[in-house]
Amino acid sequence: MSPAAPARGPVLPGRVTLVEVGPRDGLQNEARRLATDDKLALIRRLAAAGITRIEATSFVHPGRVPQMADAEAVMAGVPRDRGVAYAGLVLNPRGAERAVAAGCDEIGSVVVATESFSLRNQGRSVADTLADWARIAAIARGAGRRLTVTIAAAFGCPFEGLVDPARVVALAEAALAAGPDEIALADTIGVAVPTQVVDLFHRLRAVAGAVPLRAHFHNTRNTGYANAYAALTAGVSALDASAGGIGGCPFAPAATGNVATEDLIYLLDGLGVRTGVDGPAVAALAPWLEDALGHPVPGQLGRAGFSTVVPRADPRPPDGLEPGPS
C-alpha cells in the first residue's frame, strides 16, 4: 500500500500587499502626541524597510482626534524618493479636499456597519455617511487619486453586538456604487474568528466582482493573525498592519491594537507569501516606538526576534518580476 499523500491546506496568494497603518491608526489613540518630526522619522523607517503603502495621517477635526492635527505638515514632509503611496483617511468631503490638496496618493474613507458606532465615530448616521462617501469618491476620482472604502465594525459593534452579515453586504453594495478601487472589511474591535472572516469575505466577493479586497484586523482577543490567514484564503489581496501592533479606535471602548506588522510578516514568511518588506527591520523599530510612546508595544517580534527555524519567503520576486497569485 502506497503512503497517503500529504494533506494540502487552502491555496494562498504568492504575494500580498501590506498597508502600514501605524502612523494613523496606530498613533490616533495614543495618550502621548508625537511631534511631526517623530511621525516623519517613523514613516521614513517604514519606507526604508520596504513598505510601499502607508496610511500617513487622517484629515479629521483636531478637536475629535488631536493626534492628527498636523496632517498637512506630515504630508509635506514624507519621503518621495522610495515609490511609496501615501494614504489619508477622510470622513467627509472637506477632509477629501484637504487630502487632495496635501498630496495624498490614496484617499480612504469609512462607512460604519451600525448606527450606534457610526454616531460615535463620525457623528453621522449610516445613511449620511454613505451620502458623504459618494461625494468623497467624486472628489478623489476627479483628482485622479486611488480610492478605498472600509466597512468598519463589520463583524461586531461595541454597542450593538454581533453584526448581521447581510447588513454588511448591503452596505458594501451601496458603497461599491461609487466606484472604489478597493473595498475593505474592518474588525474594529477585534471580535471576529476565522470562520466568520472566510464567510463574510466570500459574501463580499460575490457583490464586489473584480474590485480588490482588503482586510483590517485588531488583535484584541488574540485572533487577529488567524483572521489574517483566513482572509488570504478568501481572496484578500491587501492586509493592514501597524508597526509594533500599536493602535485602537478612540470611539470604540477597549479596542486595542492592530495586528503588528512585524509579527504578520513572520507568519507570511513562514507560509511562503511574499510581502517585499524586511520584517527584522520593522521589528527593530520596537525600542524606538516604546521610547517615543512611553510604554511597551504589543508586537512580539521586537522582543523575540525572527527565528531561523522557520524558512523565510524570499522578498525579491524572481527575475525582477512581480509574482501573481499562486
TrEMBL record:
InterPro entries xrefs: Aldolase_TIM (IPR013785), HMGL (IPR043594), PYR_CT (IPR000891)
Keyword set, alphabetical order: Lyase, Metal-binding
Pfam families named in the record: HMGL-like
Molecular-function GO term, any one: lyase activity
Region span, Disordered: 304-326
Membrane-spanning intervals of the chain: none
Domain (Pyruvate carboxyltransferase) ranges: 16-283
Similarity remark: Belongs to the HMG-CoA lyase family.
Protein name as catalogued: (R)-citramalyl-CoA lyase
